[in-house]
Amino acid sequence: xxxxxxxxxxxxxxxxxxxxxxxxxxxxxxLVDRWWRAANYLSxxxxxxxxxxxxxxxxxxxxxxxxxxxxxxxTPGLNFIYAHLNRVIRRDNLEMLFVAGPGxxxxxxxxxxxxxxxxxxxxxxxxxxxxxxxxxxxxxxxPGGIPSHAAPESPGSISEGGELxxxxxxxxxxxxxxxxxxxxxxxxxGEAETGPLAASWHSHNFLDPAADGAVLPILHLNxxxxxxxxxxxRMPEDQLEQLLRGYGHQPYFxxxxxxxxxxxxxxxxxAVLDRCLGEIKAIQDSHRQDPxxxxxxxxxxxxxxxxxxxxxxxxxxxxVDGLQVEGTWRAHQVPLSEVRTNGEHLKQLEExxxxxxxxELFDAEGRLRPDVARGAPAGDxxxxxxxxxxxxxxxxxxxxxxxxxxxxxxxxxxTDRVSPMITLGSWMRDVIAENMDNFRLFGPDETAxxxxxxxxxxxxxxxxxxxDDVDEHLARSGRVMEVLSEHLCQGWLEGYLxxxxxxVFNCYEAFVHIVDSMFNQHAKWLKVHRKLQWRQPVPSxxxxxxxHVWQQDxxxxxxxxxxxxxxxxxxxxxxxxxxxxxxxxTLLSVMEHCLASTDYVNIVVSGKQPSPTWLGPADxxxxxxxxxxxxTFAGSEVPGEEPDVVLACxxxxxxxxxxxxxxLLREGAPGLKVRVVNVVDLMRLQDDxxxxxxxxxxxxxxxxxxDKPVIFAYHGYPALIHRLAYRxxxxxxxxxxxxxxxxxxxxxxxxxxxxxxxxxxxxxxxIDRVPGLAGTxxxxxxxxxxxxxxxxxxxxxxxxxxxEIRNWKLGG
Amino acid sequence: xxxxxxxxxxxxxxxxxxxxxxxxxxxxxxLVDRWWRAANYLSxxxxxxxxxxxxxxxxxxxxxxxxxxxxxxxTPGLNFIYAHLNRVIRRDNLEMLFVAGPGxxxxxxxxxxxxxxxxxxxxxxxxxxxxxxxxxxxxxxxPGGIPSHAAPESPGSISEGGELxxxxxxxxxxxxxxxxxxxxxxxxxGEAETGPLAASWHSHNFLDPAADGAVLPILHLNxxxxxxxxxxxRMPEDQLEQLLRGYGHQPYFxxxxxxxxxxxxxxxxxAVLDRCLGEIKAIQDSHRQDPxxxxxxxxxxxxxxxxxxxxxxxxxxxxVDGLQVEGTWRAHQVPLSEVRTNGEHLKQLEExxxxxxxxELFDAEGRLRPDVARGAPAGDxxxxxxxxxxxxxxxxxxxxxxxxxxxxxxxxxxTDRVSPMITLGSWMRDVIAENMDNFRLFGPDETAxxxxxxxxxxxxxxxxxxxDDVDEHLARSGRVMEVLSEHLCQGWLEGYLxxxxxxVFNCYEAFVHIVDSMFNQHAKWLKVHRKLQWRQPVPSxxxxxxxHVWQQDxxxxxxxxxxxxxxxxxxxxxxxxxxxxxxxxTLLSVMEHCLASTDYVNIVVSGKQPSPTWLGPADxxxxxxxxxxxxTFAGSEVPGEEPDVVLACxxxxxxxxxxxxxxLLREGAPGLKVRVVNVVDLMRLQDDxxxxxxxxxxxxxxxxxxDKPVIFAYHGYPALIHRLAYRxxxxxxxxxxxxxxxxxxxxxxxxxxxxxxxxxxxxxxxIDRVPGLAGTxxxxxxxxxxxxxxxxxxxxxxxxxxxEIRNWKLGG
Lengths: 812, 812
Description:
Chain A is built from 28 helices and 23 strands. Chain A has 812 residues and is of the alpha/beta class. Chains A and B meet through α8, α10, α17, α23 and α27 of A and α8, α10, α16, α22 and α26 of B.
């Protein structure tokens, strides 16, 4: 017998009362059950069948797939929940989004999309008839077909079901600024063991019940992972209830104790679902009617959630070859693995399929019978068809205020010092002010540390727990999302973007590696998404990385890692963009470009400390448009002649050192023709056959010369520059200086020296690479070396960079 | 007034009773307080002072550092806890390890190590006198000095305090198989918001109270992060208690309500600490005396923990410039930021320092007074001196059974098919059997999926919650640690390794990116650790990556990512090793090598599906020793002559395709001299100036030729091979095929074709690259192209690879 209890001693008797009160008639639950059976049938068929899809003939071994791929275990639970959600969507005209957290939920989301008609609308070759069902079955987990997870190809999905752990964060991201939306998110109990999921439970502290929608978490305890029980399913139930209440939720338990008594399970789940939706509405009403309503943590609301305890592989074979399967880890993948060769397995499969009574569900042509089909909500209310899961449909372009009002004047390159991030923060403030329901700024407690504090002039950080007098810029609603979890920042933002809104994730450069794998999944999602005609472009994922490797005076070695760029460029070139603006105005220009773009991952790296400004507003815009360019003001070229040496740079600190090195050479080796090249858009370095931003070979050779030494000072690991430029004519002449994993708590210039990107080292390298120069300029070389040694000595003795370096300005 | 309550209604009155019962006399607590004051004094001094360390003269602006770096906020709380732990260590002769989770706890761990004498023993230039204190102060967060976090340089530390989130997992790793050890881990409330930390609370389900030690978590709620309140500190206390009880703990709260009443705080904390240690001992005793003692989740034990709620920046300036500082986020870094220029700040600093009454703590020479010094435990009981924090001291080499007993015979290369991982599992079984207290195998629910199931013949997976009849290989103790969290696997293993034991982390290749950032921190730790004479070598961190990119028939695109290798090679060459054994015997040889090594990160990638065996046991050992070699059996070279083309490969699937391509060429283009080179140790490709494993240039040119085309089939992203070989003579002749981020749910050979590493593509590339061959062998080229097309067509139609490919064997 199934039981349903809440924390406050809600008794079993509640169940039937509620069912009566809410008017869940027998007929309604029968419709739910038919839908569930149809979805289960289509799920099993996807895993097993390649012909005879409706079992109109006795099942033969040849009707089954030669390779059985896919996973059954989680599927019937997902189908069960989906069927129940449809009931309330229909009844209440709910805008609801479905997030399938458990791994390998592909058969379920696809089956339900087909039942709702969405699948055939999108994929015409998978029609609403027997031939369509046959194709639905054939394509699943089949070469050239569709994946076994919820994926971009799955209508209604915004969350890849492969890696696990991100469903709850995605769900929250989807409802921010969507007050009418309820996102039902099924969380697998395997997934629930991951760190990101464990952290996500606290997300409600960042959700404003008045201006945001609601998340209904459904923790699905089917008890097992691939080969093990799960922690949450095995801990005592009173402990689990404490845990969920500790997370701030009000859990309601639905436990399927008798797998055969599906009627009871339906009644229990329906009652609990109604109760949860009622509580959600009550919370929303109170906050929307009274802005001063009590908040969570002040004796106020607790968001409801459901714990569904049902057998893994529910309704599948109970035992196979004498071993229990239903309700165990053995139901994880394919419960009957030898249907092609084992007659008993084949017979069991046939019985299993027949147990869903397909004849009651599909007519002679294989169309869904009307008394199943009416289980689907109408039009866009279908969870498989909701525009929220195809966010490009809802996307409104950001209103981007002119950034030139925030740009700094640059009377002379290199003389003024400005923090690029503070400058950007002032523009971001205006971006936020003009897009108060369409843009958010995410960061792990670092927005002010990264110097974007100007945004707090127009908005606040969201926080629902107690707010004390000493707190600054905390409020019940706001545009800034701060939590000390890069996983949550990324997960929320992904959910926000894929439902059509815009955002920026600002992060310490080193620690963005925490979300490497989430980035992978999002970049893979975008790659597939871009090829699907029916998916509309979504806003780009914008990373704004600051507090970077060269400015870690406080933090040292653990905070020094510029490798996220390397990680990112492994992903498809059409998706990845990397920008290293050298100063404040170029940062403004780059960010404007990124915020207006769609379907990319943009990575922007910028320092936060005051640093020289190089280009005025117009020059900055032009430079960024080209992506790279020769800085004649910094070099000593003779017009019309090839330079002797090229000093190239990418990144703000390398740019300072490169310009300084050019100055040292101009002073010490007059007559030497030095070209300075600055690279903003890193992908310009790649061949145009490899990246859409790649510079054509002829243009590249014109800038970097075919054969002159190129001393390249790069922000990150040097190998990346070689990698990007490896098809270039002059790649043998390319000598890259960058971060060599030498670091500690020290001054910025000492860091540059430790890794050999300092002005002295660059100038010496130029002397050594230009034929003959080391001989004619031995004294200069020695002088540079001495000055370098003195700078190191000074830093060690005084704890700070030498004054002439700290206050360095470009001469003239 | 401070309050101390436990879940069971333990009242304030308990406190004093306990203090009396346990005999915590006033004198004992005064000693604790003196220690705390001394540690606080030394912490403030590290942040501020460069001279006049003991304030023997009135404080002058010039006595302070010109740049104020470091963080005060968390430090007094850490010092408080440390002082109290020392009391019980002394009393009970406890073996205790201290893990400082909060960020920027450096001043505290360093101060305590100095007080304990350890610091001066290790770093002779920082003596136990006034000059030593001056140096202690000077070096902190100073160029060439020490970092502001707990770090390898910090005596007593196994956990970097930079990135946050891993302290609790590290703590658990340290106590596995250390039954006598209690690890006290301070968890910052900022850190507690991270996903990995949130997941770590469940770790006790994997700890055997009989055979493992204990972890005492101390959740330090000082209320604020950099700029925000923390979630755990702001949620209602009853909710927090539910949360911690939901995690399975028994929390005891110590709340400092009056920061000035430190005596009360000492009494409260001492009483709770005694109670926790008593409960730990009771749990251990019951399990060690009775193996059938009730377990957690069966009405059995709950491990105790402490929640210390104390003001951020406790004992620091209460207000600065009229704003509250103590007890707020403003105490996070340097509370008084203008001591050099603001007389009021300087005066406040002097008062602050004097509040610790240094004259009572240090004698005229600056030595610690005996009635402070006796607060330190003796010898190795000092937490700063415990050998557990310098695990190399305790490291016992693994007993490695001869792997040749498990090696497979290879009568002919390529004819038999064996799963390398199953073969390895059989050897790992013996490794485990011979090292039952010194080795563990970690994995996220994937040990069987990765085909290492043979280990279950001798051991089990650890699990403390209920074990059901249907479960297999679950037990209260065992060598296999499975939890669906890569973060936990990595964190536990790091703690286990750094305390001197051995282990392997087996993981799906794609999802090891989840721990990219943890890998970064560990590799950085090792880099620094290796330079510290006093730190002894620790066992290597071994990654065994399977279920790799080429064998994802079930899982598809989300599971396809070979980029961890790229990520890893950015770290210091002396630390990183990467192996791609092509078959079962080479995998055995490589793993034996890795398990015997120290101070490396070894990355081993191997498929789990049956695949051709190439080398017999002796040949495999030789091949692995060389790291790469020419496979004459696969090529068609003429001895003494240069080949026309080199087919090189790294990785098991690329090796199969390369050998097959060579066979296609031998059949189709007799007379063509094809050399086949297999690379096991990827670092051999790098120049020997860049990596200790790098092959000398002359040897490299001998194998790869200086100028012949090299068609290189690589397991991962092609750019890495170019990157590693970019200094090589023949790098222009290098044509790399690898994963191009083209994937989906499809067959292995279809994956190879999608990404152009299949035999046909490789053979065609060879034809195209050898001058003249495309002209003379146009028909062969066309035939290969046709066969490739037919293979794709067959896969699309039949859902499987063509039989001649599935069953492919090397001819002759």
